[in-house]
Design a protein that fits this description.
heterodimer, A: 6-stranded mixed β-sheet, globular, B: mainly beta
Chain lengths: 109, 113
Amino acid sequence: RKEVEQDPGPFNVPEGATVAFNCTYSNSASQSFFWYRQDCRKEPKLLMSVYSSGNEDGRFTAQLNRASQYISLLIRDSKLSDSATYLCVVNTGSYIPTFGRGTSLIVHP
Amino acid sequence: EPEVTQTPSHQVTQMGQEVILRCVPISNHLYFYWYRQILGQKVEFLVSFYNNEISEKSEIFDDQFSVERPDGSNFTLKIRSTKLEDSAMYFCASSELHNNEQFFGPGTRLTVL
């Protein structure tokens, strides 16, 4: 099983839609979790950290399920500018950040 | 807003040559990282650096690679003898605390011919 797995997509949604991505991880000792977005040929940009109790930042909600070893990202009221690749990052017990391959989101008018 | 900077933005080199990629992390950050991303593939961790020494490194980070913080601001990645398969985007990142949010530079695209 890969360390961090994401559905590559693409998820093709209309503006205003709600879309959710999941990311599973294999190392139960993983300590911290993040969502980044990456635009084509650009650097990853931090979107949000994922806390055990779940957290929200505007239209974005992140959740962690330690029992099932996955994190999720929910985007409400999608905008055209949300089109990007969303990267799940998990810091394993050895503090090596492991990236998923990313989930591609395309928001169309 | 403080940001991580990297130079050059694009480096072209011949196989077997040495390259040095440069990064200026955010000034109050204590942890520094290098990653690479081969075109179309995922971001891969290379090395983390704290207190003037390597704290973690991946299997990719073999003897051909080295890192250095030559002064109070720069953080460099050296590849001693480049191979074709070293062609990738190299990202530098920094964080205030260990195991914390990292902020990435814009990357250096390395092309080995």
